[in-house]
Amino acid sequence: MELLTHDMPALFAQLGLANDEISLHRFIREHSLDNQTLLPEAHFWNPAQAGFLRDALWNDSDWSEAIDQLDVMLRQTN
Gene3D superfamilies, per this entry (predicted)? Predict the structure, then answer.
């Protein structure tokens, strides 16, 4: 079975966010996470986005790699 892999633009589109390169960079610049906050619990997600992130991580879905990458990027801005 071949697993799908999703890139950052696809993840942003799945979350209902603008997914062009400028919008991705702007989102990362304007949002950050501290070391105590789990990505799905961040204040900037709406309930549907948080639920998607939580479920994808819990189920180790094919979105997990892109979500982990986003998590790292948001923590590097601190």
Answer: Uncharacterised protein PF10982, DUF2789 (1.10.10.1130)
**14 lies in some domain:** yes
pLDDT tens readout for residues 28-64? 999 999 999 999 999 999 999 999 999 999 999 999 9
Residue 32: exposure state from Cβ atoms within 10 A (0-12, 13-18, ≥19): middle
Number of other residues whose CB lies within 10 A of the CB of residue 53: 24
CATH code of residue 18 = 1.10.10.1130
Please state the pTM of the whole predicted model: 0.88
- Token reading at 69: 């990458």
What pLDDT is stored for residue 51 in this prediction? Answer: 97
